[in-house]
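Annotated sample (chain length 385).
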Amino acid sequence: MTRYLLMLITLLTLPMGGCLPQGWTRISVEYSDQLTPIQSERHYGEIFAYVSINGNRPLRMLVDTGAPVHSIVEQAAAEIGLEPSGTLYLGDYAGSYQDQPTASVESMLLGGLALSDFDIVIVPDKGDDRVDGVLGMLGLRERTLTLDFVSGEMTISDTRLSRDNPGVVPFRTTHDKKILIPMRLEDRRGIVHEYWATLDTGHNSDLLLGPVATLACLDRSELAYRAQAVGVHGLQWDAEYYPTYGPARVGNILYEGIVAGANQASNNIGVGLLEGCRVTIDWVSKLVRIQRLDGATRLIACESLGFFGLYADRDRYWAAVIPGSIPEQEGLTHHDSIIRMNGDPVDERFDMTDLWPIPDGVGVVEIEYIDAETSETKRTIIPIK
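Output written by the structure step:
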């Protein structure tokens, strides 16, 4: 089961009239030292970095390896004095395209990295106070980017990867500079299929599959859950998640089995598959390494409970809400369910994006919930290992 909280749509850039808008080709980059640590943190599985645009207050930006460009929400843009000066034609996971306003940026500081003279996309503010925008890959492709999905640390360096390094695999890039890494999935007959998938840290599901991989490798007879994807510029659409037929290998990491979403466009690897990992992207050599870190445990137990899950993050356990899977037309809300730990109810009234740390000594988590399909009250008990 995937932790599926808020999907921030990856931005695709498409040239209009045969050329990119003014600003995209004249970006300049300056580095202050060999290794650049970035002020960053991990939240709900994703990594957020702090940047300063035109000398203003730090902005909290989602680090999105699937976004070729940077974006900022309307409210943050207004606060720091950015005004629309152009447009860019953008697409998303669902295959929808629209013009989005852009603003000119004189400078952006990211740790010891300085970007200057480029355009940033302005997207609608949807009331998510976690994020001021998306930090895409524009200006970062000349060096090596490391993202630690345990500590939340982000660094930029000149260090090159080698094909001889353990766990290193080559990657391809699309026309708009997205990273494609190899992926292997089995079909119902046990035949292994090889695909390329976008490494996309901008969404926190495990895996989204395009039409071809969905048809071949997802067991559509068993729906795991439904969830609604919400993008930073307002597009919403429903996604269905199904189990894969067998083991999955993504890059160099083997997963015994995962739940994947039936996507409308391409194959996308989200941060759900990167929990407990360190990802190093060498843009110059076009090599990527995904390392499983000691002491980090991925999903230990999660039932198809309508909208609840149980997760492990290193030595901590979490009960989690998975939003979007309760049909609004039935009048059900997340308040219709109860979490108990060792028989005691969780006191707080929880929100769609809440996680509860499970204290030491709790051996059992009991979840009482309303089935999204039948509206019946059900219970399940998950032992803490």
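Annotation: The chain has three domains: 12-157, 168-275+288-292, 308-383.
Annotation: The mean pLDDT is 72.
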